[in-house]
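To assess whether ligand presence alters the predicted conformation, the chain was also submitted together with N-carbamoyl-L-aspartate. Input:
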Amino acid sequence: MKNLVDILDLTKEEIDDLVARADDIYRHPAMYSDACHGKILATLFFEPSTRTRLSFASAMMSLGGSVLGFEQAGSTSVTKGETVADTIRMVAAYSDIIAMRHPYEGAPIVASSVSKVPVINAGDGGHFHPTQTLTDLFSIREKLGRFDHLTVGLCGDLKYGRTVHSLISAMSRYEGTKFVLISPKELKLPDYVKEEFLKDADYVECESLEDAIPELDILYMTRIQGERFADRDEYERLKDSYILNAAKLKDAKPTLSIMHPLPRVNEIDVDVDTDPRAHYFDQAEGGRYIRMALILKLLDDGVGLDSRLRGEENPELRCSNPHCISRTERGIKKLFVGDRCSYCDQAASAK
Ligand code: NCD
């Protein structure tokens, strides 16, 4: 594997190896403190971040490497009209590995198609967030000891929540997974995610968190993604759809794992924080070790170009997603796999 754009770029065996490596790093950090001496990680964040950017930086520093990058596109030549492809070509000349977050869906695919160093997707719009999923899987293995036969409740913004999309795609590969998709009807899981990952899966959709809680092994709470709403009033109306508190957990399993990619807004009351089943802060801490394991793997594997770009040009079609990179990036081929856009996976429409 040379880039991590989508969690499915990793096989289940590679995920097991990364989780085991992260655990070893956690137990024996001194053994890894020089492993990336002389290497440079570039963190390119065209969108806000706390945990992802800082845990990537912390991971590289803990491996003895260095970090450069930016936290706001506003301070870069993007404001002068530079394309993603040109920005990445330059950064690849100044670094050994790139972690990027971008508001446009599919931007890391464009990046991986021109970069001579490995590219990691640290979140692309409302599409995917594979390194959060690695963080989630590391936590699940630590707290529950397995990935199979788990009933996973995902609650909140399933429409725009990229962490949810990547976690579903990863967990759908394990035997006996049941998904309970808890959201207001306006924020249901998009069809492209359902069609791609839930075709043969056991899942139910519901609106009541309280009704769902008793059967869950994992409750994955998410923030309503205000920044992705076109209509501010709709966000105001939906933002407090779910608030988990201690009282709502009275019928939950004693072994439940309460997770959240963070940041939380209102969706988990602070009275849950002291419950031993509240795992979200440990989950975030693990992000440092799993990213160390990922950086080591990509620097070992990642030589040369290995673009995920696939599909065919089709002059009849146009991607229907206004947040797709293919709508803004100049000079790239508009590619489709069947009637789906190759960059953002959403349905294309006739021109
Ligand atoms: C998430 C993200 O950026 O998608 N945060 C993170 O990376 N831990 C979740 C969110 O912003 O709600």
